[in-house]
Specification:
mainly alpha
Amino acid sequence: MSKHHERHYAERIGWLRAAVLGANDGIVSTASLVVGVAAAQAPRGDVLIAGIAGLVAGAMSMAAGEYVSVSSQADTEKADLARERHELEHDTEHERQELAEIYVHRGLQPALAQEVADQLMTHDALGAHARDELGMSEMHSARPLQASLASASTFAVGAALPLALALFGPANLLAPLVAGGSLLFLALLGGMAARAGGAPIGVGIGRVTFWGAVAMAATAGVGMLFGTVV
């Protein structure tokens, strides 16, 4: 008998979120910085220095922020599991009934719910309560280091794209070239992320390009208003 293997979009949530967030922030923040500085009539060298500084600072900020955030989630998960483990050791019958009630609320008949709870408690009591009572699963478990590295690396890749445009583009067209090219990169990113996550591609493209355009327009306005490196 052949085995049927299914792949679900939910399996991609962890890495997809970190990758899209990192790359999107890298493109938007660096492109906005470059456009703002270029709009202030700064020399290309100053534009590149500002962009590179933004890349390094942004990547480190993303790494630290993601690590702290996901570590806090992991700490909460560990605390919940420790509490659940203690309750299983000291009040097993109550936990058994609690699990059965969960299955009744999900639509099982009480007798069947009790049988399912009994079997799962025998097989892996903590795992059953973590999954069905606390909503935890291996698929969505917090991985601070993985999330930190994914966010930092994808931010750097995203930030490198507008920097490349600023480096190789004509000096007198830096602002419009970086803005237009970055919007194209954002559209590609939004489309790929939507496709990977099973969402409508047009929606994914529209939301990232819209907010990217707003950010770049705002910083360009600041640069033109003050006429100085910002």
